[in-house]
Amino acid sequence: MERLMLLDGNGLIYRGYFALPPLTTSKGDLVNAVFGFCSIVLRGIQDIRPDYVAVAFDLSAPTFRHERFAEYKATRQRMPDDLRNQFPKVREVVKALRFPVFEMEGYEADDIIGTLAVEAERRELDTTIVTGDLDMLQIVSDRVRLMTTRSGVENTILYDPARINERYGLVPGQMVDYKALKGDTTDNIPGVPGVGEKTAAKLI
After folding, report:
1. How open is the CA angle 157-161-164, to the nearest 5 degrees?
2. φ, ψ for residue 199 (rounded to 5)?
């Protein structure tokens, strides 16, 4: 069975930046996000052994979610300059590795990855999404898994339907309702007042 690895470019860059201490080149340029991105990608290649790899990036323009909910991600602080400056370096790495890049105005990398994963499943490919968060658990299936880091950039965990059920007591398709009920402070999604993780799972 052929394997596809889909990389959440922005998610992995952020993960590398915040999970690792400052790392600099001989010229003094900060590269911890670049190093973290490369480390996670190499770990994914070693563990997954994919036949195909693709990367999706967010663009700076607002998405359709901002049009529907003006406060979406409104509480996020401005990206630090020393993180912003590492994005072009990561893109240079991706280009050198000849990974195809997907990005589209009005959509997030997660949307693109979800679309590619569904299409890959239709074509009977085994897909692993490599990301720095758990925002895409709802598209996990028997053919789609999600790999993320637990701490640092080396300690990874792989989510399939069984692991999601073990952790949340839910099936992947219920994760959208779960997140809507409990909210998400990272994305400034309010959720239902007084409903946390345990209550949300019970209600579903």
Report:
1. 60
2. -65, -40
Compute the residue count for the chain. Answer: 204
Q: Rounded to an integer, what distance in angstroms lies between the CA atom of residue 51 and that of residue 166?
A: 29
As to burial, measured by CB atoms within 10 angstroms (0-12 exposed, 13-18 middle, 19+ buried), residue 24 is exposed
CA-based nearest residue to 58, from 13, 121, 98: 13
Q: In this structure, which amino acid lies at residue 25?
A: T
117 burial level (CB within 10 Å; 0-12, 13-18, 19+):
buried
| Per-domain residue ranges of the chain | 3-159, 169-204
Residue among 111, 79, 97 at smallest CA distance from 8 = 111
Contacts of 167 (CB under 8 A, 6+ apart): none
What pLDDT, in 10s, does the model give residues 139-195? 999 999 999 998 777 789 999 999 999 999 999 999 999 998 998 887 777 888 889
Domain spanning 3-159: CATH superfamily:
5'-nuclease (3.40.50.1010)
Helices (H), 97-160: 109-122
Q: How far is CA 55 from CA 21, 73, 96, 112, 139, in A?
A: 25, 23, 13, 9, 17
Looking at the DSSP bridge assignments, the partners of residue 5 are 53, 128
- Does residue 204 contact residue 165 with C-beta atoms inside 8 Å? no
